[in-house]
Protein: CopG family transcriptional regulator
Amino acid sequence: MKAESDFSQTRRGAIVVEPGKTRVTIRLDNNVLDWFRKQAQEHDGNYQTAINAALR
Structure:
């Protein structure tokens, strides 16, 4: 690992994500998140997509 990093050319601010998406922090019960992750694994999907669909 480098002893120093050069951040002189970086910009502060929000992380750029896909248009139409917003990064948020949400607290979910462990068992709810586990259920969505299990469903995603069984159906070759993404648990975040499944949560988004359920909320929609």
The CA atoms of residues 19 and 52 lie 15 Å apart. Helices lie at 30-42, 47-55. The mean pLDDT is 87. Residues 30-42 form the longest helix (13 residues).
